[in-house]
Write a structure and sequence with these properties.
The complex is a heterodimer of chains A (115) and B (115). Chain A has no helices and 11 strands. Chain A has strands spanning 5-7, 10-13, 19-24, 31-37, 43-50, 53-56, 65-68, 75-79, 88-95, 105-106, 110-114. In chain A, β4 and β5 form a beta hairpin. The radius of gyration of chain B is 14 Å and the shape is globular. Classes of the chains: A mainly beta (115), B mainly beta (115). The interface between A and B is medium-sized, with 29 and 28 residues.
Amino acid sequence: EAGVTQFPSHSVIEKGQTVTLRCDPISGHDNLYWYRRVMGKEIKFLLHFVKESKQDESGMPNNRFLAERTGGTYSTLKVQPAELEDSGVYFCASSQATAYNSPLHFGNGTRLTVT
Amino acid sequence: ILNVEQSPQSLHVQEGDSTNFTCSFPSSNFYALHWYRWETAKSPEALFVMTLNGDEKKKGRISATLNTKEGYSYLYIKGSQPEDSATYLCAFAPAGGTSYGKLTFGQGTILTVHP
């Protein structure tokens, strides 16, 4: 089975620009998560989709971040406008059941650098 | 705010040594504890999902124990090999969450196994 794929693997943008990250979960996984790791810190939760619905977006830092999962398949995470503190590695993960009972399958991440 | 602490932060061992590290988490409102292995330039890979006090799980030379009453889990590696070099992450899921999808990660233990 194909794993979780994320695109792009790296992105370097200037402050004020817009970036859109994409995640394709494992086929059949209703649960999709976005996490972020800022340099030197722990991986932090951003949000959780169940199919196309946002189940929990309590980790989204502010309204510059917008996540969508149209049709319950792939997901996008848009940062507009990007700020320096948005730099980090953005991970997408998916699971069959929720994370409370099921391991997360992670993608390789998108390394975002805002200059 | 949930605190998940991992110790030590980093560990250097010789090939063949056995090693262990700790994950501490809030002992109240426990639901599940995850362990992940994260090699550089790859995606975090699930090792174990543990839910019951006293749980012991094993995967090859790696095993984990869980004590939910005192709020800790140990990860053991027997006969470490250079390919075991990675960051080992634990992640906590509290009971009573609204989405059953939000994990709180520790900062990880970086293991280096020297040939």
